[in-house]
Amino acid sequence: RAKELGKNNYQFFTAEMNNMMAKKMNLEIGLRKAIENHEFELYYQPQIGVNTGKMTGVEALIRWNHPEIGLVPPNDFIPLAEETGLIIPMGYWILRVASQQAKKWIDQGFDDLRMSVNISSRQFQQPDFVAAVQTILSETGLPAKNLELELTESIVQNPKSALPVMEQLKAMGVKLSLDDFGTGYSSLSYLRSFPLDTLKIDKSFIRYINEEIKDEAIVKTIINMAHSLKLNVIAEGVETEEQLSLLSDNDCHEFQGYLFSRPVKADELQEILENHKAYKTD
Ligand code: C2E
Ligand code: MG
Ligand code: MG
Ligand code: MG
Q1: Which residue CA neighbors atom 23 of ligand 1 most closely?
Q2: Cα–Cα distance between 119 and 124 in angstroms, integer?
Q3: Tens digits of per-residue pLDDT, 160-213?
Q4: Which protein residue's CA is at the shortest distance from atom 10 of ligand 1?
Q5: What per-residue confidence (pLDDT) applies to 41?
Q6: ipTM
């Protein structure tokens, strides 16, 4: 009986594993065709000045509309794209579309709008990355100062190779932001050596900022540090007025989150831009 049960468990386990592997393979096959099949779409989420209430920029966030599965969240396919190397063509597609869109909005008079684009570390490590960014900027006509690249702490794992790439991007006028700050390899020494413009406080610290005294302390510390280092600081995942007012009390520069807007399609962002040009929080 025990043997039988064991056998059943074993079969269940392999079935489960097969299922998972099949799913992954399906995703991979789908991913390979997704660009040419126009299944990707960039959504844009506003970033807002905490005290001015004005929109300072938008973050481009990819969405995959799978023909059978429906909407697949980025956390379910970005890791696979990185593993397979598909992130490279995908990443350039993202950069090009985001730059084209930003250029359109700038041409409409939203001159200072900053377009933030997430860059995977695998893409950042490509030898031709800087040249590719340069090409995309000149092809789309987007001024370098309007582009910000969001890098994660995993990129800076190898500071020897990351630093010169960052410096070349800075020399071009592109802005650099450290995303998910506080969740990674928390060596603070790179804050000193890397030519960053922005620190982005990870949403996991914002979530319970009004309940957890430790989270509040961490956020305050990051904001103060950003001030001392003359960096722009932005909080992500802001969902409530209470979170926003605590960020305001501590002089956080900008915020991003459902409180103001979820990530939306380009035409919806267009409306937000027109209606909230001078949106005020107070
Ligand atoms: P991220 O760059 O840290 O992006 C912030 C995530 O928080 C986004 O999830 C966004 O939709 C979500 N978010 C924004 N406001 C709120 C809020 O108020 N509450 C909560 N709970 N969440 C909020 P999303 O779009 O699912 O993306 C997840 C991650 O996938 C991103 O984290 C980024 O690491 C990656 N990703 C997304 N788009 C791209 C892309 O175009 N390229 C690359 N390389 N990675 C991307
Ligand atoms: Mg990001
Ligand atoms: Mg982030
Ligand atoms: Mg994050």
Answers
A1: 237
A2: 7
A3: 889 999 999 999 999 999 999 988 765 677 888 899 999 999 999 999 999 999
A4: 263
A5: 97
A6: 0.98
Pocket test for ligand 1, best of 31, 90, 101, 236 (most atoms within 8 A of CB): 236
Q: Which single residue is written with the structure tokens 């980025």?
A: 74
> Counting atoms of ligand 1 from 1, which one is nearest the CA of 238?
18
Contacts for 210 with CB less than 8 Å, ≥ 6 apart: 216, 240, 242, 243, 246
* Residue carrying the six token digits 């909230």: 276
CB distance 258 to ligand 1 below 6 Å: yes
Displacement of CA 12 from its chain's centroid (Å) = 38
Cα(202) to ligand 2 centroid in Å equals 9
Instruction: Decide if 142 contacts 122 (C-beta within 8 A).
Output: no
Q: How many CA atoms lie within 13 A of 102 on its CB side?
A: 32
Ligand 1 neighbourhood includes 275 CB (under 6 angstroms): no
% of the chain beyond a pLDDT of 90: 76
Ligand 1 lined by 78 (C-beta under 6 Å): yes
Q: Is the pLDDT of residue 9 over 70?
A: no
How does pLDDT run across 73-104, given as a tens digit for each residue?
999 999 999 999 999 999 999 999 999 999 99
153 in ligand 1 pocket by Cβ < 6 Å?
no
pTM of the model: 0.92
Nearest residue (CA) to ligand 1, atom 38: 61
